[in-house]
Amino acid sequence: MKTFKTSLLAIITVCLTFSCSSDDDVKSNSELIIGTWELTAFSENDVAETLTECELSYTFTETQATSIKYNSGSAPCEVSNTYTHAYSIDNNIITIVGDDLPLEIVTLNSTTMVLKSVEVDSNNTYVYIGTFTKKE
Predict the structure, then answer these.
(1) Residue 4 region by backbone torsions, left for phi larger than 0, else alpha for psi between -120 and 50, else beta
(2) Cα 49 vs. chain centroid, distance in angstroms?
(3) Which long-range contacts (CB under 8 A, 24 or more apart) does 111-119 make?
């Protein structure tokens, strides 16, 4: 009986050792979002917009989001406006202070971020989807 208990304990120990995985490599949205992201694709109501090489970029730190808009058609890309606001992330929703439209995180990994926002006015609903690539 003692041999059975020892064998059972050994089997349980081995199973627990190999079945437990480390979450150390799993990053949260709050960690993955930090960096500079360039807009690479944009659509409004499933209609793709044509982008120029001078488009919107976002830079996220732990507490602030900075958006940079460029003058279209200028070479080299010339900054037209820069906005910096505090932001928060709750699950997959980014709320930027001073902006009424929350951004839903559709995809976020180390290289790609897809954000969705929905705007409703009295007669229409607009769905915006932006795909960003992380700048290294």
Answers:
(1) alpha
(2) 20
(3) 113/32, 113/33, 113/37
CB proximity list for 69: less than 8 A, separation 6 or greater: 56, 79, 80, 81, 82
Here the tokens at position 51 are 């982008």
User: In 10 A of CB 71, how many CB atoms?
Assistant: 13
**Which residue segments constitute the domains of the chain, with CATH numbers given?**
31-135 (2.40.128.280)
pLDDT digits (tens, 9 = 90+) for 16-47: 444 444 445 678 999 999 999 998 999 999 99
**Residues near 88 by beta carbon (within 8 Å), at least 6 away in sequence:** 94, 95
Strands 103-108 and 112-120, by their bridges, are antiparallel
Local structure of 86: helix, strand or coil: strand
Name the band, by pLDDT with cuts 50, 70 and 90, for residue 15.
Answer: very low
What is the C-alpha separation between 42 and 24, in angstroms, rounded? 33
SS3 content of the chain, % helix, strand, coil (to 5): 15, 50, 35
